[in-house]
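In this section we walk through a basic example: taking a raw amino acid sequence and producing a predicted 3D structure, encoded as discrete structure tokens. The instruction is simple. Fold the sequence below.
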Amino acid sequence: MKTAIQKWNPWWENPANISKLTGIQREGLPIVVRTMEARHIKDIIGVRRCGKTVLMCQAINSLLEKGVKAESILYLNFDDPALSSMEEAIKTALQLKPDITHIFLDEIQSIKEWEKTARVYYDTNRFRQIFVSGSSASLISRDIGKTLTGRHITHVITPFSFREFLKYSKVEHPEYASEGERMLHFLELYLKNGGFPEILGKDDLIAKSILVDLYNDILTRDIAARFNADLDIVKKIGFYMMSNISSPFSYNSIASALNIHYDTIKKYVPYFTEVFALFVVPYFSWKLKVQAKKDMKCYSIDTGLRNAVAFKFSDDRGKLAENAVLVELKRRGEDVYFWKNKREVDFIVKGQDGLTAINVSYADSIPKRETEALLEFRNEYGDAKLVIITRDTEKTDENGIAYVPLWKWLLGI
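The resulting token sequence is shown next.
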């Protein structure tokens, strides 16, 4: 165990070793660093291999830059079989470095009842900072929910945003505004390959192999093993939903399509959202009873992951663009729905300043139905902001509908 602990903490030997582990600075790092002002436990959650470990290493680097001694920072990755006990690992680490004040506990869901030990550390002020990470939303909803209420701050991260993807591709901010065609080139790559850090720079065959393996790990380790679910059923549901991103569905429709009992579908679908493989978007209504009876829509955490594992029967860049918009809305912390009457509105964003209705039309020409749907929604719900996210059209029309190119919208410019 001592050897494993020393392996995971190379900055003990030389603080400069952290530079090999930090990668491209994640957009969420400034917020993570700012929350260190609070003593609360910091939980970093997101889909498997989206960069949680790197974000932790970046937080460690920020501590080193502020003068925190390398010997006082401990990182443990509980995916390592040598670290089977959280308490034993920390005790052993303290024997090696008795002045540890900051602990970073990665893939903590591997340890049963870890939250009880973490609460003892927190309540007794044993450590100045406690960070934990995991690949499941149940890290907060189930594990942390009761034991650590009021004692933690949550950070949710995703695969690379388009801005981070450009940074990896060495495209700098001053180039954005004047190089629309170049941005479209990188946008097409982003929609095709997605933003998982591990696949960037790889050729298509290797990238697909990595993503397929990642997807199988999610199904096997994060869903089937964690929730004691039937792996064969998990695979069928996952394939169906990944193949039908952006399309309305109900538990009944999936049950009928897959010939699987309704109760099983209702139980299993939330597993995919808990491990961040999928986002489920509900129907928009001010009435919860109406919302509960309507269809939902689903989207993949990453367009590259979806492309690697789903059945595709056409050029579906429109679906991929819509998927990228939904993930970015979630990345921004928005409360997102969809709406349908005679026409369908892809996304309704419920914000503090009112409603925003968004349609995504990633095509050379924009069908009339896109504007008709937005106007139909505004006619029913009043002064909603109306937006069409396009491939390259940029204007505001006579109805006040703002047309914004997808690459500009993703970059927030």
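Looking at the output, two observations stand out. The chain is about 45% helix and 15% strand. The chain has a mean pLDDT of 93. In the next section we compare this with other chains.
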